[in-house]
Amino acid sequence: MPITADQIRQVAQLARLELESGRIEKYAHELSSILELADRLSRIDTTQAQALAHPLDRVQALRPDAVTDPVGEAGRATFQSIAPAVRDGLYLVPKVIE
Amino acid sequence: MHTLSIRQLSEGLRARKFSARELTQHFLKRIEQHDKKLNSFITVTAERALTQADAADARLAKGEGGPLTAPLLGIPLAQKDIFCTRGVKTSCGSKMLDTFVAPYDATVVRRLHRDAGAVLLGKCNMDEFAMGSSSETSGYGPVKNPWDLTRVPGGSSGGSAACVAAGLAPAATATDTGGSVRQPAALTGLTGIKPTYGRVSRYGMVAFASSLDQAGVIARSAEDAAWVLQVMAGFDPLDSTSVDRPVDNWIGSLDRPIEGLKIGLPKEYFAEGLAAGPRRCIEAAVAELKKLGATVREISLPHSPLSVPTYYVVAPAEASSNLARYDGVRYGHRAADVQTLEELYKRSRGEGFGAEVQRRIMMGTYVLSHGYYDAYYLKAQKVRKLIYEDFRRAFETVDVVLGPTATDVAFKLGAKTDDPVAMYLNDIYTIAANLAGIPALSLPCGFVEGLPVGLQLMGNFFDEGRLLNVAHQYQRVTDWHARLPGAFT
Predict the structure, then answer these.
(1) pLDDT score recorded for residue B314
(2) What CA–CA distance (Å, rounded) separates B130 from A7?
(3) pTM exceeds 0.80, yes or no
(4) CA–CA gap between residue B314 and residue B191 (Å, rounded)
(5) Of A47, B9, B189, B454, whose CB is crowded by the most CB atoms within 10 A?
């Protein structure tokens, strides 16, 4: 099923991606051919198959509810030192509420 | 020194034939001389390397080192730029992370460099966010193949492969989501192993597709790969998918004879897609393994031709979720002059991600979106189960599954960049192991017109030791792995 330029715009919006306008048609064409590849799956009988989300059939590992991050609280300044914009220990973004 | 094995380097260090500083300087000099031709490094950590080498020399002087206690003490290694390295830029091949200096070490980095005393030479170039099969999607320019500078080294771990193939590092770490350890190893004449899913910690390894990603090694031989992997592997409570189970003694099992080994040749891996030259090399390698006492039988992995479409639904779906974290707020690229939060997200991501990453994010968003989830994502997970079952059945009758790693030798730079589907089909023989979660290894088995050919061995869960053992026994009677490309001797 071919993907239209409008669908590309919609998916890009969902993914919060601003696309160069000149690329939209190209992406529509490329995603259509990738989906054509994926459409091969529709011909396979999977009525007996259970979905496999994870290769090791295990339950999620559990641990005591304690701080284990090796960087810890002292890492706050380290983490903020690589942020594009911070002030007073806070990350800055454009104003959200007027 | 760049032609010695890691075992020989370790022996040389302990016998004080050369110091870790001299060894490190040798490789740093080779990087300086040769890497302009290859572009295999994004960052060279020369100063840090010499500091680490001096620390290793101090430990060696106290009698430390050796295969049992500290096999990599003083051995220089390169890291794929996907592993967070404290205080060093960790770009993942993306302009999105061009300014990202990692605030902590990945477990792989900690084990190799902080605990085991290996020396970090630098961070290797790669496809952006490991999405690619040629290392051409890197935000830092393409990597060249040392065997022919007009050809690709494979990907996504192309920088790791190119630097080891050219003798700029004894070995390098790599990661494998759909073949990114094995395919570049094949295209550059090296040995690369992707262990069982969960065998090596993913903590601090930039996430692409979390149910498939696994760290591995690219080295010049199975023995070298075993020496590095032995140190990297093991349970890590910081990665919830890490497997809590002791690591086997892989170094110790290399010398076992392989008499009686049962090899399965899946007929689907020898169908029309495989080029004639590589086919002949692989058949010759099978004959060699038979001489060593292995028995061979044809098997079938009937669903393996579906691994590419399955992967290109599952992997982009997971990637679209994992890459949501790059928002221009906490780290990474942030667009200038934005008025609203939404504009900040959209422009930062539009500017920071390259075309292949954008394609995969959109593909993933599409297959997870309302109305398509069942048709694509759920369907792909069910086919994934069928692929897994194929292997489960195969390992009831054989010990290892053998086939090609890639359909052909390395292709020309630019040959497939305009056709994503042609690029994706490169991974046809490697992806199934990731979908099933089993270990797989590529090793060199010949040359076609001067270009290396890779042979793939796949094993049952946690049977890395057998793959390394079989590859090592083959490498004892052949010398494909010992060759260096002419321009880098």
Answers:
(1) 97
(2) 26
(3) yes
(4) 27
(5) B454
CA distances from B118 to B14, B173, B174, B200 (A): 14, 12, 16, 17
- Summarised one tens digit per residue, pLDDT across range B36-50 is 999 999 999 999 999
Identify all chain B residues contacting A84, using CB atoms and an 8 Å cutoff.
Answer: 99, 328-329, 331-334
pLDDT of residue B365: 97
* Average confidence (pLDDT) over B92-104: 96
Which residues of chain A, if any, have pLDDT below 70?
70-74
The set of residues, in sequence order, having a beta carbon less than 8 Å from that of B139 and lying 6+ positions away, is B91, B93, B94, B95, B96, B98, B128, B354
What's residue B140's pLDDT? 98
Identify whether the C-beta of residue B182 lies closer than 8 Å to the C-beta of residue B176: yes
> In this structure, is the dihedral angle defined by the CA atoms of residues A5, A11, A13 and A19, taken in order, positive or negative?
negative
In this complex, do B331 and A84 lie within 8 Å of one another by their Cβ atoms? yes
How high does pLDDT run on average in chain B? Answer: 97
Q: Which positions in chain B touch A89 (Cβ < 8 Å)?
A: none
The whole-angstrom separation of Cα B261 and Cα B264 is 10
Do B98 and B139 touch, CB atoms closer than 8 A?
yes
Query: For chain B, what is the total number of helices (H) and then of strands (E)?
Result: 15, 11
Total number of domains in chain A: 1
pLDDT reported for residue B232? 97
**Does residue A23 belong to any structural domain of this protein?**
yes
Q: Is B308 on the interface with A (CB under 8 A)?
A: yes
Q: Which two tokens stand for residue B159?
A: 């920088």
DSSP-derived secondary structure for B17-31: SS-HHHHHHHHHHHH
Which pLDDT value is given to residue A70?
Answer: 65
Q: What is the mean pLDDT of residues B445-458?
A: 98
Contacts of B366 in chain A (CB under 8 A): 3, 7, 11, 31, 35
Q: Which of B133, B138, B156, B157 is catalytic?
A: B156
Domains of chain B: 6-260 (3.90.1300.10)
Please state, in angstroms and rounded to a whole number, the distance separating the CA atoms of residues B68 and B39.
35
Separation of first and last alpha carbons in chain B: 11
In a domain, A82, yes or no: no
Structural domain includes residue A15: yes
Instruction: Evaluate if residue B35 carries a pLDDT over 90.
Output: yes
The answer to whether B60 touches B22, Cβ cutoff 8 Å, is no
CA B327 – CA B412 distance, rounded (Å): 35
Average pLDDT in the B1-5 region? Answer: 95
With contact defined as beta carbons under 8 Å apart, do B475 and B427 qualify?
A: no
Domain that holds residue A21: 5-43
Q: Is B156 labeled as catalytic in the residue annotation?
A: yes
Asked if the structure places residue A39 within a domain, the reply is yes
Q: In 3D, which of A40, A30, A16, A9 has the Cα closest to residue B356?
A: A30
- Which of A7, A8, A13, A18 has the highest number of chain B CBs within 10 A, making it the mutation to test binding with B? A18
> What are φ and ψ of residue B130, in 5° steps?
65, 20
Residue tagged active-site, from B133, B180, B307, B348: B180
- CB-defined contacts A:B, below 8 A: 176
What is the tens place of the pLDDT at every residue in B392-402?
A: 999 999 999 99
Q: Record the tokens describing residue B28, joined without a space.
A: 């740093």
Give per-residue pLDDT as tens, B23-34: 999 999 999 999
**pLDDT value of residue A74:** 67
pLDDT digits over B323-354, tens only?
Answer: 999 999 999 999 999 999 999 999 999 999 99
Amino acid B312 reads Y
